[in-house]
Amino acid sequence: MSELTDTKTKIRRLGKTLSLVCTIGGFIFALIAGISFLAACAVLFFPDLISRLSGFFEQNSLYRLLSATTGISQMETRFAAAIGCTVSAVTFSLLTFFTALFRKMLLRLILAEKPFSYKTASSIRKYSFFILLMLLYNPVVGILLFLTVYLFSYLVEYGAMIQEKADETSRIQGEMIVSFAEITENKSGQTGGHIRRVAEYTKVLARELGFSPDEVEKLGLASTMHDIGKLIIPAEILDKPGKLTDEEFRIIKTHTTYGGQLLEHVEGDILGLARTIALEHHERPDGRGYPAGLKGDGISMEGRIVAVADVYDALTSRRSYKEAWDAERALQEIVRGSGTQFDSRVVEAFQSAYPEIQRIRSQYRDA
Ligand SMILES: [Fe+2]
Ligand SMILES: [Fe+2]
Q1: What is the CATH number of domain 188-363?
Q2: Which of 167, 172, 241, 301 has its CA 20 to 30 A from that of 248?
Q3: Share of the chain above pLDDT 70, in %
Q4: Residue 203 appears among annotated catalytic residues
């Protein structure tokens, strides 16, 4: 897992915990506001209750503050008690409102694709000073809330810093990948169209399978290197018209392990994905694939997606040893391989996104 994904997961987990605390806190505040409101009504309409509730008011710091500044306690009237309760009801209603607002902001932050920014961090820090107003009501709650929100702003700032670093790494990885793809294109006997179409099909399938927009983009880029290992396969074998001998097929198969080795010591989440794809795009759920003969969920989802994208494009393209199949026949072949050659969920996604696949096929047609 990359540093960014790791931090994002941690901060999202923390955000979810904080939002749960907000939900519980908001509920308690709303409950106290409701009780205060009912108490205000009760002291107004049932005067006898005042004497019984006097203990409650004496505990209330706002009431004590009011008593000290206005001498209201000496009035000992229903009106004074009602004011105390109403102030409490209004204060807790405001607290409920601010807690709900904070929770909403938290959720927006943790659900965003790029949740951290320096701007958000400084806004949080700026607004956290408003919480200091709480000191008037309850110093302990006020200080605790202020510190929590203030420290949270530093967490967001740290996230923004790592996000910035990761964006830079992604940009460098992207440039490297484009160069690699161009080399593969020139040396592997495949057209650039194949690499582009496989990347686009991969993105459509990943989107259909619920990957996030960021993951879809990364997967599309990583897929362009699926055949990077073909760089070591002699051109006579790659471009051979007609059937391959067993020995030639054995050599062709090594493009997966060689691709894996080539990307073994590179850093970065996209290149890591590219390595998995290079290794696993010829594996089959029934275990009859290569190089490792992995089965079912033992093959990464990324490998299973690129397998479908790659085969569909190979079938519908002309190769030195075969003519291009028509789209319908290739679709039938993919559906026929569901559960054996291909992952059934990926095939389902392929079928439901078929119109989009067709659009891409005609858009990136070989010249
Ligand atoms: Fe391949
Ligand atoms: Fe391929």
Answers
A1: 1.10.3210.10
A2: 301
A3: 87
A4: no
